[in-house]
Amino acid sequence: MDVWGKFCGFLLRKVMGWTTVDEPLPDDKCILLGVPHTSIWDFFVSYLYYRSFGEHAKCMIKKELFFPPLGWILRAMGGIPVDRSSPTNMLRSVIEEMERPGRFHLAIAPEGTRKPVRTWKTGFHLIAREANVPVCMGFFDWGTKRVGRGQVFPLTDDARADMKKIQEIYEQMHLTGKHPEKYITH
After folding, report:
1. Is residue 173 domain-resident?
2. By the 8 A CB rule, do 27 and 133 touch?
3. How many domains does the chain have?
4. H helix and E strand count, the chain
5. Which of 46, 60, 137, 165 lies 20 to 30 Å (CA to CA) from residue 73?
6. Looking at residue 115, what is its pLDDT?
7. Residue 102 domain-assigned?
8. What is the pTM of this model?
9. Is 44 part of a structural domain of the chain?
10. End-to-end distance of the chain based on CA atoms, in angstroms?
11. For 8-40, how does the pLDDT look when each residue is reduced to its tens digit (9 = 90+)?
12. Residue 93 maps to a domain
């Protein structure tokens, strides 16, 4: 592992007091759900988690945040600027990226926002099915300060039914967001 990865692990575990539950998936390609997403700090915890294992993950971030110098930092941390005004084009470009050779782990917040929402977005489902990659039920629990990739969820052809099951599993995990009032599972 590189020096930066060790430093990220030190920051995450020793300075911030987080426990890593498991390692990133060894597969070259996967989608990692990040739940609950209630704060921009979730991105930093996830980044430190992945880097602490010497790994890199990508994350879709609204293009409006990619102005200098913040944009440079976000790109260095794996941020991919996305135009949310065209969801179809956005999904197609992510699928194409997933299909390229090489390692590509993509972190996605199915809530789609840091605001409380009852209906989660299913774009990750389409990406995973089209690119034939596994979906991990990643989590960051601010109540217990535990972070991990979670279980691999076996997708079916029914995105809505899968999303219902995914939300039920997350609800049974009793996770706490940094801002608990912004996390709704049912």
Report:
1. yes
2. yes
3. 1
4. 6, 9
5. 137
6. 81
7. yes
8. 0.90
9. no
10. 40
11. 999 999 999 999 999 999 999 999 999 999 998
12. yes
